[in-house]
């Protein structure tokens, strides 16, 4: 996906303050967030919408509600699993990993029968 | 030692905290978002007077006032349980268990989802999510969007997206189903929009209400609704198109739609695909009340208020000693009403805590009157029958709790 623009100037809300750029990694690649930006916003600004794939089906997921209710945006942050990307501010050198598909041994067994 | 724990740093919670603290109580406010203000910080619209209602400025004002009153505000803290232990409430949070004799639950609202095939694709989001990304985080959600669902909230946020230069291509309805309910019936949607147009001469709705005020249009209703839609601030509103599926592989690529009849039934053979790179689902708001539920507070389903609400009085008490509520947890209304309800709750708590002297009763009465006044002045209502919904709740409170002796007798008789 193409990078999404940050809305630097707004007719009513005005210009965004100059904020420090902060490096972080997502699935091993380095990106820049702005200071006090959530993981979901920083990744979107870098053109990344897929925050995880569904544990069972493997289909892609992004943020849905953006305010912590739906749990769709959960990622792993510095080895802590199930952290909501929409409520967590990026910190210097944060290591973020997307959610991965899990093996479903029972389902595979049933399918093979 | 904390006297009052306020859950939620939105307009209701902050106003409640300010009132409690100015009455001499020690207050802590907790909220799981990254900064105080709640959903107020996303709001941006022009008032009847032409002035802008800038939610960011309003929340900054409340935040500063709260700090001046020495309110301890903790952002980024989640609450996962609420229970009472003898005289104290235990509020279980991500930073440990906090205790206080009084709790104000001001948890606000959440959005009704409208599930449809493909809605889990990245790029599909609730309309409120787009609002927060645009006005709070200031990141563009996409280049070309489609809104599914036509209601007051959708129009308000459409206007905000347009202000920020975000292009919304079309507004369509969800397909009629048990999950979408009235939101999938063109005539019902039309009726609710007409209702809003009648109530609201605000610039926000004027854009959409020009056509709705047309008598011919009212009479002929949906039968002759133009297939190309009617423009709402430049964006076609297609009341006779229903979204069947969001399509895409890795992310949103478009929405498959079909024409519908006046009742929202799909007309076979009319399917087409609208390209888009983001989709907003606008299902409306409901009171976010899980914490009141886990605390053991009784509930009532009142559709006029937006859903299930904890039992509460007009002075914001619940049947549970020490637990108070304010804002959208009690029913869906504007941020201004939420603020005014927070003030009621603040005085109510101060009165229960024996603070505020003799003046407190009059202050409490005045704050209740203020909510009535603000409600009468409101240009738009998310739920048009809000007054009757409020009345239902307060009547129920009178029956169940205001006269416990009578209840006791009825129980015996029953």
TrEMBL record, chain B:
Domain FAD/NAD(P)-binding: 3-154
Names of required cofactors: FAD
Keywords: FAD, Flavoprotein, Oxidoreductase
Database matches in SUPFAM superfamilies: FAD/NAD(P)-binding domain (SSF51905)
GO molecular function, one term: oxidoreductase activity
Pfam family, one: Pyr_redox_2
Domain MnmG N-terminal: 314-353
Record-given protein name: Sarcosine oxidase subunit alpha
